[in-house]
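Supplementary Text 2. Reproducibility record for the structural model of the 176-residue chain.

All settings were left at their defaults, and a single model was retained for analysis rather than an ensemble. We include the record here because the model underlies the residue-level annotations in Supplementary Table 4.
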Amino acid sequence: MEKVEKALRRTTLVVAGLLLAGALVQMFGTDAIAGSHRESRLAGTWRMQVTPKNCQTGQAGPGFDVLLSFARGGTLTEVMNAQAFQPGQRTAGLGVWDHERGNRYKAVWDAFVLFDSPGPPGYKRGVQRLAWEIRVDDDQATFDATSQFLDANGNLVFATCANGTGTRFDDSQDED
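Retained model, structure tokens:
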């Protein structure tokens, strides 16, 4: 009987050890694998340099920066410093992103335009809807984009195009 109890205790300890090892791999292994493939992942915060363009002529407008945070699970938050908007005229953008294939991603988000402004370009109160196609290479990105400006009734007022580059935010940038 004593041999059976010892074997049962040993088996119980082995099973408990395997369960603990499995739990640790589940908790930490996924992040380790994700970290080792970081170069092909979009999740994180990026500083993007945007060059807006006339969709028909390709004529470039004044560039500006955008901060984009891509959360795991597919949501995104955006803030921009485009001088074309008056102070307080446009909210931060909120939206979604998805992996298409390889190093390619797509993102769509909306920002509210809170009041009209004189032209050009003459923004109207409503929504700015942005769609980006993003390519990631290590901690660098390039993108092509479209932007639709819709009035408060959802009617298209005008559209713009853009392209640009970006760099992943890295905490080592602030080291002393």
